[in-house]
Amino acid sequence: MNFLELREKYTEFSYNWYKIEENENEYKISYEFEIVGLSKFNPTWTIPKMSDSVSKDQNKELLETMVFNLGMVELVSYWKITCAPHVTVKNICLNQKQIDWWKKLYFYGLGEFFYKNNIRTNIDEFMNISTGNRKLSKIITNEKFAGALVPIGGGKDSIVTLDVIKEDFADNMCYVINPRGATEETAEAAGYGEDKRCYVKRTLDKNMLELNKQGYLNGHTPFSSIVAFSALIVAYLNKKKYIVLSNEASANESTIYEEEVNHQYSKSYEFEQDFNEYVKENILDGIEYFSLLRPISEYQIAKHFAKLPNFYSIFKSCNAGSKENKWCANCPKCLFVYIILAPFMNKQDMIKIFGEDLLEKESLKETMEMLAGIQKNKPFECVGSRDEVNTAICETIKKCEANNEEVPLLYKYYKNTNKYQEYKDEENEYNTFYNSENNVPEHYKQMLKKSEII
Hints:
Elements: H1 3-9, E1 12-22, E2 26-35, E3 39-41, E4 44-48, H2 60-74, H3 76-79, E5 86-89, E6 92-93, H4 96-109, H5 111-116, E7 128-131, E8 134-135, E9 148-151, H6 156-164, E10 173-177, H7 181-189, E11 197-203, H8 206-213, H9 223-237, E12 242-245, H10 269-282, E13 288-291, H11 298-305, H12 332-341, H13 347-354, H14 365-372, H15 386-402, H16 409-414, H17 418-423, H18 442-450
Parallel strand pairs: 1-5, 5-7, 6-8, 9-10, 9-12, 10-11, 12-13
Antiparallel strand pairs: 1-2, 2-3, 2-4, 4-11
């Protein structure tokens, strides 16, 4: 089934309704989306009440606005099945600026999906949106917010964030969507008890999964934007002032050479800016969304993580192995993490983490080429920049040669490439790297300095 045929057959996608149900323990959020003539979808969210105060004095209108907007980002997972040209948002009114905002997120957040499905379209034509009459206005609230909500993914980045801001521990809370081994163990190892971990359950509609099996369109969606809008609800319910992400500077780099196709678009500085602007204009003031690690590089994050041995056996960021809470040791994410940590950790610790020496695996040669820019396009994974990869490789080669150790198999090959000639004598800019395009408040910048990352 292809894009044009599906759009011609299924012309309308509808956001029918959202519903909030509350009991003494949790909020249950339900949605109904519909590809007219094909299927309805009812995904859900369950958000626990972390304390008695959560259920008191909540602004129901504000909560409803947040839940509606979470539905706007959730819908794209279902829209992409047929890419209907027309989207109807029933009942709720959106102005043109809001419609343009959502179209921008969908279009660039689906860049990988369009690319992999060979879809040729543009931001004006891929979708038009019509809405209802009821307007959800921004709410002015006098509620006080303090502390940080920290989304945890189970990888090294959020671990570094938790370590950097540990002096604010008393006011912080971890946020996890559909917890698994690495996320739970990370929060626990960082000292966050059950009363300081908000575990939210998100379900996907089984009809979508069945249609994917039947050959309808499938692919990557901007998951980090789902994290953003859901974290906003959790931050509000728990009166947290900051949503502290762990997205580094390299999340801004395009995956596809010389094209605007970024697997990490919703982790980018541009989306961070857009999200804060949207929230302040349309939802509320008082909660700020920023990435603590935006000023720094993957290289600096890896260097700091290497100082945290208590997390070596815990962290996992391999998508292929996530269900089994392990590293698959064969994918681009595994190899990237291995490459970026190798300058700072000894081989024995690395092998203990991954189960084998990934730098000795000839089967990963092409993956290394993609990561290093020997091939033009990066893998569609959340990995660092090409410059960071080449710098880390050259630093590891220098370390091996200085210690009279044999250079690993993949790096022996790398030494015969133009990239090695290009980078081997370059000054390592990542030791003192600082990206000024960030929204980090001064209080948190001081923590980064105290941790000696910047």
